[in-house]
Structures are given as structure tokens and as C-alpha cells.
TrEMBL record:
<keyword id="KW-0732">Signal</keyword>
<protein>
    <submittedName>
        <fullName>Transporter substrate-binding domain-containing protein</fullName>
    </submittedName>
</protein>
<feature type="domain" description="Solute-binding protein family 3/N-terminal">
    <location>
        <begin position="1"/>
        <end position="165"/>
    </location>
</feature>
<dbReference type="Pfam" id="PF00497">
    <property type="entry name" value="SBP_bac_3"/>
</dbReference>
<dbReference type="InterPro" id="IPR001638">
    <property type="entry name" value="Solute-binding_3/MltF_N"/>
</dbReference>
Amino acid sequence: MTQQISITPLRLEKYYFSEPYFLSPYRFYVAGTNNSINKLEDFFGKKLGLQTGTSSHENIKALDPEGKIEIVSFSPDTVATIPNNVINGKISGSTTAVIIFPNLKENTGLDIKMVGDVIFTEVNAFPFRKDEAGKKLRDEVSKVVVEMREDGTLEELANKWFGYNPMEGLDANEALDKLLEQYRRDGLIK
């Protein structure tokens, strides 16, 4: 059994990861009436709502090492209140995966909008224990992921369940290399 797992610095310390199987670009969202926020720096001195323990939390901290953005943490139990907090002005915005935003907007019925360019891209892969058995299993799973990517199975499944291919026009290994390079540059990994 597995679920969508993003590669993060903390997880890299603890797990081996398979070849990436999914890329998930993230953008900011704000109230529909907010025209002053379009990029990371526009959040300096403002409150950004994020769920604790997520890749968004880790990535924003890495992108804002001086802590100029006030992160307001939401637990898994309260994360669903983030859009309402954006609308009522308790926070200026949040982040979400581009693929999730249309459902978020539709399900809440709130006047929210995505702004700016992609701020980071989650690289999703399967985690394995950091031992010999985990390494062996990682290698076996990675082989299957590559085969599924090359024979079109991953694209077919993504189109069936998400309505589009999140890997289209993207190179999973290039995205992973960029992510790891950013983490090294930020001193989050060696």
C-alpha cells in the first residue's frame, strides 16, 4: 500500500526513493479580490497558511530562509479551513498543487484564484527503508516505474484518473536533479 509521497530533505535522510512517477507543480492562491500578490516576495511581511509536515511547509521554508513570510500552520484536522481563512483575511494566501486547485475552488465555492508562476514542483516517488532490503526493493520498483513511463502506462493511468498527464513535457529525472540541487544549495542536504 502506498500514497503520494514527495521527496523532501527530511525524507531523504530517512528513506531511499524510487524513480519518480509523478510531478506536481505548486502555485500560490489568494482571494479573488487580491491583486497585490503574485510571487513569493509579495508574501514578505504577510501570513501564508500551510499544513504542517508537508512538502509545501518544507519548500517555503527553504525558499524563504530568512523567515520573511509568517507561516501560519494548520494541522491535518484544520487544513480544510485554509481557503476560508484566505477569504476572511486571517491569512493572505496558501499553496496548492495545480491539479488540485480546480476541485478546491469548486468544492469550497469561494472566490479564490491561483497567482504567479510555479513556485516549486513536488517530485513524487515511492519510499523504502534505508537498508539492503529497501535498496533492493527500490531498484526493482524503479525498474517497473521506468518501464511504465516508457511504455505509456503511467500516462494512460494519469489521463484516466486525473484527466491529464502531469509528466507531459517534463523530465522526471531533470525535475529530481533540480530539486536536489536546490536542497544542496540551501544546505538542506549534502
